[in-house]
Design goal:
Elements (H helix, E strand, L loop, with lengths): L1 H15 L4 E5 L7 H13 L8 E5 L14 H4 L3 H16 L12
Parallel strand pairs: 1-2
Amino acid sequence: MLHILKRDWATLGPKLQGKIHIYCGDMDNYYLNNAVYLMEDFLKGVKNPSYGGEVTYGDRAEHCWNGDPNQPNYISRLRYNTMYIPKILKRIEESAPKGADLTSWKY
């Protein structure tokens, strides 16, 4: 994926801006954190547009760490919806077309 992003950032960047969010344990059982470090370096350096997302590492966390630094994986896996809905709603609000109804669906 990194190769494709590097090759095609001029085309893909505008479509992916604000949509790339990577969560990785820094002690991944399969050493995938090493690939994430390379991806993060690339993403930090892109311009026109910047990627506008996030890369977060779990301190001493294993494979499938999902972004919650306060809970172990076996608990945080049960609450993905409560973790990511606020981020999804923020993205909707930021990218909604002018005049879109952004209030009637909030409870």
